[in-house]
Design brief:
The structure is a homodimer. By secondary structure, chain A is of the alpha/beta class. Chain A contains ten helices and twelve strands. The first copy, chain A, is globular, with a radius of gyration of 20 Å. Chain A starts with a strand and ends with a helix. Chain A binds chain B through residues 74, 77, 129-130, 142, 144, 146-147, 151-161, 163-165, 168, 176-178, 242, 245-247, 249-254, 280, 282-285, and chain B through 74, 77, 129-130, 142, 144, 146-147, 151-161, 163-165, 168, 176-178, 242, 245-247, 249-254, 280, 282-285.
Chain lengths: 310, 310
Amino acid sequence: MDYCFGVDIGGTTVKIGLFQEDGNIREKWEIKTRTEEKGCRILPDIAKSLLNSLEKNGISKENVAGIGIGVPAPITEDGVVKATANLGWEYKNVKEEMEELTGIRTATGNDANVAALGEMWLGGGRGCKNMIMVTLGTGVGGGILINGKILTGEHGAGGEIGHLCVNYEETDNCGCGNHGCLEQYASATGITRLAKKKLDSTDRETLLRKGPVNAKTVFDAVKAGDEVADEIAVEFGTYLGHALANLAAAVDPAAIVIGGGVSKAGEVLLPYIKKPYQERAFFADRDVKFTLAELGNDAGICGAAKLVLD
Amino acid sequence: MDYCFGVDIGGTTVKIGLFQEDGNIREKWEIKTRTEEKGCRILPDIAKSLLNSLEKNGISKENVAGIGIGVPAPITEDGVVKATANLGWEYKNVKEEMEELTGIRTATGNDANVAALGEMWLGGGRGCKNMIMVTLGTGVGGGILINGKILTGEHGAGGEIGHLCVNYEETDNCGCGNHGCLEQYASATGITRLAKKKLDSTDRETLLRKGPVNAKTVFDAVKAGDEVADEIAVEFGTYLGHALANLAAAVDPAAIVIGGGVSKAGEVLLPYIKKPYQERAFFADRDVKFTLAELGNDAGICGAAKLVLD
């Protein structure tokens, strides 16, 4: 039992890592995600790639603890997906199918939850057992870890932090059909939206009028001392910090890890989130540690590998 | 291993039950909570009472699976309390001390969390593994169960549902020091507050002007078709339903159980909570089952007993 696989299925590529049990990545690679014909080739393609890797590296199945798979959809504890937005799958028992294809024990999880587990194992949440991770990308994803385990939930939809309602007055729709979801303010798209509204509402000078407006340029302008950009960051951080304070009252975490594309802005981000968090957090949760994610695109394969080691 | 004890420590009395492993209560009783001298007598009093019960019933320690204890304070997974509001305890390792006093394995939990576990085992949440319980009493307490286990959290403060902020405009203070906490709108005290504000803001006729104004009289008036009371119930239900929808996005429960004194109003309560919940819930969480708690004051001893059977 010296090795395991971590597999992170995305809509375009599948990331795969061959891990040693201590967390070292012996090898990592990608294959194409073939979504045609209801995605029927995705799991067989992965299985073939894993078995090839074992053969190439001279590793026998007996030395593999298992295959962990992160899936971009709600997935139950039993490994069942009911529908996917971008893989073509309808009902599928991912765990069972992969075990049949490979003869190797398989564990599964939602991709955002699995990334959170990866950050807890090897990244920004190292040493924590209770952790919230929020992933600020095109959307806002999240993962909640309780006693070192993923909070999967009844329908595999635990940790859907992006869809906490943070503004009951909002009239614009979120992709989920609701309005006022955290995702509308704290994702890369959301920050762009806040920025454009801000620019429309003022004619003050700002660096943001000199080029494209997006999450990166907003935080670049913040770093350059731009006042308008600072106000946009305050708005972003207030929504996110307040949502995290409410979440912490329920979950009581040791750490909150901020990841995703937006987090590449770096440490400058954290005070904007921490201040409103601390203003609103329940007293027992006020000392929570805020950190940035560290694993970038590898969080998924790392967490997936950890799934089978637990 | 045919028996176990469930102990629910309150500020005035300690409730104790001798359970069979199938959940039947063989005997239940109460003793006084002696909080003087930093509460140093509370655990010895309980230990004595339990050992007496074994002797009286001719049960040997070998046939006792353990002692479960619910405590009115945050308590860590290891059984450590750092402070209590109404027992006099400062730092105390409850688990260790009770095991030394009795020689019987002991498990501990926060009283609201333990009550939730009781309702899952024998009450309104029977058959569920993932459940949120919200207790509408003088305050608003709560418990979150994930895969059948209590979400204890890092500081033993998991499930503090009453302190989710639901109104950032609120100027009145909550007991916790924040303002806008769910407890200020959904507790018995909170409903009374909402009702008084409503009565001050209108001179419409209502049954509520004919006697004392409290949670019971509000829901009695609702049942009698009173329009002003209905509007108060809508306000209460909107705050609670929206807070539960946010919580469900994080936790993805199968059921939400409503307990505490306010829940004695009965089924009339549920539509007021469910409607705003469903309007705001993430799609995967919309079919959650809403039920009333069933165990009343026994929820604590039942859940405490279940702690040691798991």
